[in-house]
Amino acid sequence: MLFDDTPRGLLEMLILAGGFAAALSISPVLFVVLAGIGYAVKAEDKMCRRNIRSSFSYLKRKGYVEVRSSKSGKRVTVTVRGFKCASMYRIRKALAAPMYYSLKWDKKWRLILFDIPTEDRAKRNAFRFFIKHIGAIMLQKSVWVYPFDCSERIILLRQFFQLTEKELRLVVVDSLDNDQWLRKHFKC
């Protein structure tokens, strides 16, 4: 199957189709790629089409997509809520993927420092959940430590939670006092 027949899979397909349409306006050569995708979708059975219709109606009902009529026909657009849902799904998918780090520790600690205001308690708790999921260990309430490079994931989280550099910092240090327990925990 080309895409998941779940609402999230359909949402990804719609976002991907929007990207292809934008790219097609720049480079007509991509028409061949789109034709191939259309052929693959046509080859699916009736059950798959029913699942796609069901998923599409679910996305409309939840407010992730909307259908607008225009002179050229009906147009499906992804709403702001849909983009937020898709980006949250992307972050979960990225964080669920195993951390690929070098087998050899570079003898540097990554300190993740964050200062999210108490008014944004939900954002702070969600951020803390993702930091825990990465595998970082809490040194203090808003100071976490990790021995391997996690800068890409931290940047992804900063963008998703719309945090400033002042609210979230990643500091790389050569040594920490009394880090034997950390070395033992991370097997460094």
Automatic annotation (TrEMBL):
Residues 104-164 form the Transcriptional repressor PaaX-like central Cas2-like domain. SUPFAM superfamilies: TTP0101/SSO1404-like (SSF143430). InterPro entries: CRISPR_associated_Cas2, PaaX-like_central. The chain crosses the membrane at residues 20-41. Keywords: Antiviral defense, Endonuclease, Hydrolase, Magnesium, Membrane, Metal-binding, Nuclease, Transmembrane, Transmembrane helix. Pfam families: PaaX_M. One of its GO terms (biological process) is maintenance of CRISPR repeat elements. One of its GO terms (molecular function) is RNA endonuclease activity. Gene3D superfamilies: 3.30.70.2650. This is CRISPR-associated endonuclease Cas2.
